[in-house]
TrEMBL record:
InterPro entries: Glyco_trans_2-like, Glycosyltransferase_2, Nucleotide-diphossugar_trans. This is Glycosyltransferase family 2 protein. SUPFAM superfamilies: Nucleotide-diphospho-sugar transferases. It comes from the Bacteria. Residues 9-171 form the Glycosyltransferase 2-like domain.
Amino acid sequence: MINNKKIVVVLPAYNAEKTLQKTFEEIPFEIIDDTIITDDFSNDNTIEIAKKLGIKHIIAHNKNKGYGANQKSCYKKAFELKADIIVMLHPDYQYSPKLIPSMCDLVANNSFDVVLGSRILGKGALQGGMPLYKYISNRVLTFIQNILMNQKLSEYHTGYRCFDAKILEKIDFENNSDDFVFDNEFLAQCCYLKARIGEISCPANYFEEASSINFKRSITYGFGVLRVSFSYFIHKNKLWSFSLFKNL
């Protein structure tokens, strides 16, 4: 805990057998109260390794439902555990678990409602192995999103996030996408709620075993991001109503 707030780390996993242990062992358990792993029907030994590591809360999907669906299972379980602060960390070791205390401290001390681990702050993205096309598309999409959503974030596409559970409870994320654009929908909803969003610099760590979507899926994701951003702009300016923001 920090400031008597229960902290839960959620690990949405898919074929993470080669990186799960390394990720898990670097989690700062001196402040973490619980960890949850959801396995999206991996075809490797992710679940067996999770059991070996002693992860108490393991959720196994009986079919591959998608990245967004994996997160939904994580957050629902975190609510059941009555988490005050929820950290979403990919178990593929792309992001350093050692930043968790800094991220949680900013939320626990009421500085921010959401804290993002940004690979773009500083010069770590390309140095850490981010493919050039992903870096360029990240920067272009973020530029467009900041204009349409009236924000000043360095990136919207990080998979390393810390939330005040009170913000998550206001969002009907069950109706969000089950695919990769879930992350962007979720963050857009946080923006719509006027959540205080902070960022800390997070080194990128791209390597062979780390998960990554291919070029084709990246294109689909990019168009999904634009859809979300334009929907936000149109809804915010009362030009049309979108279900993504209707009940916020």
